[in-house]
Structures are given as C-alpha cells and as structure tokens.
Amino acid sequence: MSAPDTAGTGRAVEISGLRKSFGANEVLRGIDFHVERGEVVCVIGPSGSGKSTLLRCVNLLEEPSAGTVRVGGVEVTDPDVDIDAVRRRIGMVFQSFNLFPHLTALGNVTIAQRKVLKRDRAEAERIARENLERVGLADKVGSYPAQLSGGQQQRVAIARALAMGPEVMLFDEPTSALDPELVGDVLGVMRGLAETGMTMLVVTHEMSFAREVADRVVFMDGGVVVEEGPPSRVIADPEHERTRGFLSRVLDPAAARVEGSGPSDKFGSDGANA
Amino acid sequence: MTAEQAAAPARPGGLSRRSRRRLSLGGQYGLFIVVVVLIAALANWPQLHTNFANWQVAKGLFPDIITVGLRNTALYTAVGFGIGLVLGLVIALMRLSPVLPYRWFATAYIEMFRGLPLLLIFIFVGVGVPLAFPGTTIPGGAVGQAGLALGLAAAAYMAETIRAGIEAVPRGQLEAARSLGMSQGRAMRSIIIPPLTNELVLLCKDSSLVLFLGITLEQRELTKFGRDLAGQQGNTTPIIVAGICYLIITIPLSLLARRLEARQRRERR
C-alpha cells in the first residue's frame, strides 16, 4: 500500500561519505558503513562521538552536510525524494520516548496508522493491540503516558513504531533515560524483536545487550568509525587503543582508574593499587 | 484536657501552638459575625429593596432584556470570537514564520491592538471607517461592526496565546510525528493543535470577559439596555438584572474552563 515505488531492493541502510556540521562544529567527519537486511548493528562510543547524529541522519531528522544515505536502495538524501514516504518504512525510538501526551497508549499507536497509512479505525486498533501485546502492555491500552512508568512509555513507543510495519528500526539510546530496574523490560522487547529477524540499528551504552544480540558492533569516536566487526572481536578483543580505553571505562568504571588502560588515566597502575 | 496539657512541652510565658491556632480561628469567626450583625442593623433594607431589587421594574424588563440585550451580547461575542480566532491563528503563524516582514507585521499588530483601548477600536470601526471611505459599509450591520472591532482586538491576544502554545510543544513530539511519516502540516494538525483546544476554550472565557466591555453601537446589548432603562425608570434594578445575565454566561464558562484545566493537569502530571 505505502508507495511501492520506494519499496527497497538494496541493503537496508547504506551510508557513504556522510558528514554533518552544526555551525563550525563538525560532528560527523566522513562515515561509511551499512546494515544488511535482518542484521542487528549496535553503535557504541563515548558521548559526543556523533552516534545519535548518525542515527538521525538515516531518517533525515538531521540533514547531512555531505554524503549519501540510502535506505532500502532509495537515496534519502536526494532532494526529490518524498521523505515522508521513506520515513514510513523506518521506525524510530527516542531516548526520551516522545509519546503524544494527549493520547492514550492505544491512541499513540493508532494515530499515524490512521492519518498516514489511512487504515480504518477497527484495523488500526487491531494492529495496535497486537503490537501493545507484543511489548507486554496489553493491559495498559487505555492509559495516558503520564500514568505509565518510563519503561512502559518506551515500550509503547516501540509498539507505535512497529505498528507502521517498518523495514528498519532505529533505536537512539532507548534505555538511557530509564531507571536501572526498568532497563531489562525494554531490552527484553528489543531482544525479542531481533529474534524475529527485524533489521535494527541501535545506539546504546548497554554492552551486554550489544554483546549478546548484535551481529555487528560499530565503535565511533570523534565523528568517525574507529572499528567495526562482530561483538566477539570489537568488545572482547578490540584492535584499537581508543576502543580499549572506552570499553574499560564503560565495562568497569571503577577498575578503569586502577588499571590505567585509558588514555585519560593520570594515576598509573601502582597509584591506588598499592 | 489535663493529659493534653501535661503532654505539651512547657513553654515559659507562651501559648502552645494548638492554643494559638484556636485563638486565631476564633478571632476570625468573631470578626465575621460582628460585620454581618452591623450590616443587618445599619442598612436601610426597604430602600435597598426598592432601588436594587424592585420586582415591578424587573418584571418589566422581560422578555426584552433576554431577546434583545442578552441575544445581542451573545451574538457580538460569538462573531468577535470567530473573527478573533481565525485572525489570531493567522497572526500567530506569521509571528513564527521564517519570513521577516511577516514577523514584523505580526509583532506590530499584536503590540498595537493590545495597547489600544477597545472603545477606540469600536469608534474607529463604527465611525472612522465610514467617514474615511464614504459609501463603504461593513457587512452585517451592527453585528458586523461590533464583531469586527472585537475580533481585531481579540486576535492580538489570541495570537500570543496560540504562539505560546505552539512553542511549548516539545520538539521531540514533533520529531516523533515526523519520524512516523507525518508531513509537517499533518503533524501540526494531529499532534500540535489538539492539546491547544483546551487552551482555546480557556481563552474563550477570558476573551468573553474582554468582549463584554462597552458597546457604543446602535443595537443595544446588555449593558446599554440596563443603563437606558435604569435612566428611564429612575431605578437601579435593570443594571442588577443585566449583571445577572452576564453571570449566567460567564459562570458556566468559568466552571468549564476550570474542569478543562484540571484535566490538562492530570494529563501532564
């Protein structure tokens, strides 16, 4: 139904020579990478490394300064492309949920189906209920966002994106705004989604999720891709010094100081240890 | 009592907190009773009755005060509100436009009409326009003139409210709507405007108060109706009745607005 002419044939996401500047600040300095269909790719890296900007360039919430982005073979960066038609095929989940506060969970999941895909109310609600059940919120259909916990809101946001039948799902630090005890529910839903073969591009700080679920991990720093590969290599045995430094800080913040493997370490190995 | 006193910590030379509270409350009730008694004893009730609540005079006001006065007031308000809302929306969008001259115009309009007394705008529309352009008539007669004058002024206030409402919508909600494939216009209509409707009803209440200010045009509305009859009959009752008619409109509106405010708070909690 939704614009068969834009239905993709190529790789799920293909990015080449991508650059993005905000004023004089160049956040992305030439990114080349891709996501195959059915692949789960996790992007990791220190804050300010450009991970979120990269993700937002994929559905053009940020307009790239240079380079091309293709989604399913369609060049998103082409000014003649109907961006709304492309975005229909890309689901996005935000760090801060961004639910519509004046609508119930059901309303949040049905509104775009009805207004954008022109589904009738009965069909949109049936699909909404299916997806809310899929994220474990069948009993919260009538609740407003303000009545839900952060983890529940984020799962409604995932259901909202899934109800559009996307080919690719983008996750922008989906658990970073959550209390620690709520993170597991959201990651569980994402894990289940990955198992169904959904193509996913995930910006995250959850290393255990990246290690267990990702087919490929991309480490970014300073606006470039430093290293990429299967998690068994990038996380367990990274090649680059910068990757190692980042991972040691993230995986064991307390030990990072003691071992002195990070470049920012001023104490040396015998400082606090002796 | 004794147990209580024993339990209270000893405070040399002072009262306990409980005693102070009792004393203060007792004082306030005492003052209230004294005032009520004084008013009841000193007021000239028969004279108040004949002047302010004269049933004879009041009965004579009906049904005209409703069919002419109240009807016209409601009509002017509705027309003025409609014109103000449409014009206010346009000006709010101009105020937010990337086109610089639009922003200038909107800002100038808002500052001008918020700074002018409503009476001056009425005179301008009712007298100034026909003088300046002989032969032109504002369509709709008195209703058209009053509605236009009220709408011009109300638009300036509404534009500011609408603009504030649009700017208050978190950017993330707009991004979420866009990432679901909604166009800018569709996102505005489906996501940005609906929460504003609550605000618009609140605005209706406020503007209705502004709009009830004096109307100097021929066709009589409540205030003029009451004043004229009070003059004719040498009695204040018509003004009181006119006042009650206003309250019949404004009090339900206030209650509605309060309920909507409460709902909004619940949703945003």
TrEMBL record, chain A:
**UniProt-listed InterPro entries:** AAA+_ATPase (IPR003593), ABC_ATPase_HisP-typ (IPR030679), ABC_transporter-like_ATP-bd (IPR003439), ABC_transporter-like_CS (IPR017871), MetN_ABC_transporter-like (IPR050086), P-loop_NTPase (IPR027417)
Bilayer topology reads: Peripheral membrane protein
The UniProt GO MF terms for this protein read:
ATP binding; ATP hydrolysis activity; ATPase-coupled polar amino acid-transporter activity
- Where in the cell? Cell membrane
Report whether Hydrolase shows up as a keyword of the record.
no
Superkingdom, according to UniProt? Answer: Bacteria
* Assigned protein family: Belongs to the ABC transporter superfamily.
Protein name as annotated: ABC-type polar-amino-acid transporter
**Which classification does the entry list for the species?**
Bacteria, Bacillati, Actinomycetota, Actinomycetes, Streptosporangiales
Automatic annotation (TrEMBL), chain B:
Family (UniProt): Belongs to the binding-protein-dependent transport system permease family. HisMQ subfamily.
The taxonomic lineage of its organism, from the top, reads: Bacteria, Bacillati, Actinomycetota, Actinomycetes, Streptosporangiales
Q: State the coiled-coil residue ranges.
A: none
Database matches in Gene3D superfamilies: MetI-like
Q: Name one GO biological process term.
A: amino acid transport
Tell me where in this chain the ABC transmembrane type-1 domain is found: 70-257
**Which GO terms of the cellular component aspect does the record hold?**
ATP-binding cassette (ABC) transporter complex
PANTHER family for the chain: GLUTAMINE TRANSPORT SYSTEM PERMEASE PROTEIN GLNP, MEMBRANE COMPONENT OF AMINO ACID ABC TRANSPORTER
Instruction: Tell me if Coiled coil is a UniProt keyword of this record.
Output: no
Which GO terms fall under molecular function for this chain's record? transmembrane transporter activity
Pfam families, sorted: BPD_transp_1
Subcellular location per the Swiss-Prot or TrEMBL entry: Cell membrane
Q: What is this protein called?
A: ABC transporter permease subunit
Annotated membrane topology? Multi-pass membrane protein
Alphabetical UniProt keywords:
Amino-acid transport, Cell membrane, Membrane, Transmembrane, Transmembrane helix, Transport
- The regions listed as transmembrane in this protein's record are 25-45, 74-94, 115-133, 237-257
Q: Which domain of life is it from?
A: Bacteria
**What is the first-listed, main subcellular location in coarse terms?**
membrane
